[in-house]
Amino acid sequence: MKTLSIFKIVLFVATSTVLWSISDPVATEKTLFDWFSSLENVEMTVITDLDKLIRDKYKDEYQNAEVIIRGDNLEETTWPARVKARGVYRKRICDFPPIKINFGSELSESLGVREMGGLKLVTNCSAQLESHQLVQKEFLAYQMYQRVTDESFRVKLITIHWQDEKGNSPPSTQVNFMIESKEQLAERLKGTELEKYAVSADSLDMTSASRTGLFQYMIGNFDWSIENLRNVTLIQSNIDGKIKVIPYDFDFCALVDAPYVKVPRALNLTYQGERIFLGPYSSPTIAIAKKDLLDSKKEIYKCIRKCPTLNANHKSAVKRYIESFYQAIDEPLNIHKQRINED
Asked: How far is residue 212's CA from residue 245's CA, in Å, rounded to a whole number?
């Protein structure tokens, strides 16, 4: 499947890995996600049977693909890969579901990095222009939380050209984003992923849990739960055994304002975008979380201002929504009645 000459492959590997190693002497400990994150203006062309990819999205099976990688100071190269649909809700409702790309060992070994879980992509749900803006706002939510804490999933914007290998579907270009794998997140935070429901409050790192809860409150997200392990990853520290709470999947939050979101009646919210606190409540750690968000305020606004692919109208709407949080940060939280007070 590889179509490059030996010369191009050697040039690609030499250019990328030598520069990588010069900038970081422990490059062999890096991952494929780290490598992509280090590149400027990186693009991929993914060539596969797109009809089959969408038709078989529920099968959880990889199919063969060819991926062309290009970017600043990179020789264009082509690599064999496997792709499959991923996710749950968006797999069901989207014309084009989120995707996972697995390069196997060939690319990662050539670069001297680890693949570590493959590449998870958030894609445009449909071909409509507005769908592109929704993806950019979700990317922005991830970026905001990165500015608040390192205990967060890292993300990287990437332009992807999706091409049907049989020519049955028209090619499309999307600005998607890739997400750090759970395996890499756990390793980076010196912990172990814990897939456990209904963890006890005393086992939680309450600073982490409160920070996650308050951030979700800031962006207007109700689609998460520690108890039900919904859209959070639990990382148990290898140092003190406490469980950190790392949020992901922000498409249901009011900041993104996706048209397919319906607020559950059980939450008793009076309007779309009303905030509700769904995390465990502890006054001391909520105070720490408020300070973290206040200390990150300038960086959060900078993220909004500099988001390269979000249009002016959406930037203004996002800024207004975040401003409404900061203006009321000293007021009592709208706490869901079923939350347990941990004070």
From this structure: 7
Q: Which of 219, 71, 271 is nearest to 158 (CA)?
A: 71
Residue 214 has which token pair?
Answer: 């308050």
pLDDT digits (tens, 9 = 90+) for 64-97: 999 999 988 888 999 999 999 999 999 999 999 9
Question: Averaged in consecutive runs of 10 residues, what is the pLDDT profile of the chain (343 residues)?
Answer: 44 48 52 94 96 94 97 91 95 94 92 92 89 96 98 97 94 96 96 92 95 98 95 97 98 95 90 93 95 98 95 97 97 78 47
pLDDT in tens, 285-313: 999 999 999 999 999 999 999 998 999 99
CA dist 45 and 166 (Å) reads 15
- Look up residue 238 and give its two tokens: 């290898």
C-alpha distances in angstroms, 173 versus 44, 45, 119, 280? Answer: 10, 9, 18, 42
DSSP code, position 157: E
C-alpha angle with apex 301: 298 to 302, nearest 5 degrees?
85
Given this model, what pLDDT does residue 289 score?
A: 98
CB 162 within 8 A of CB 257: no
Contacts 24+ apart (CB under 8 A), 114-117: 114/29, 114/30, 114/31, 114/32, 115/31, 115/32, 116/31, 116/32, 116/33, 116/181, 116/183, 116/184, 116/187, 117/181, 117/182, 117/183, 117/184
Sort strands 74-85 and 119-122 into parallel, antiparallel or unpaired.
unpaired
Strands (E), the chain: 43-48, 63-71, 74-85, 99-102, 119-122, 155-164, 172-179, 191-193, 232-237, 243-247
| Sequence-ordered list of residues with C-beta below 8 angstroms from that of 211, at least 6 positions apart, any chain | 148, 149, 151, 285, 288, 289, 292
Segment (H or E) for 298: helix 297-306
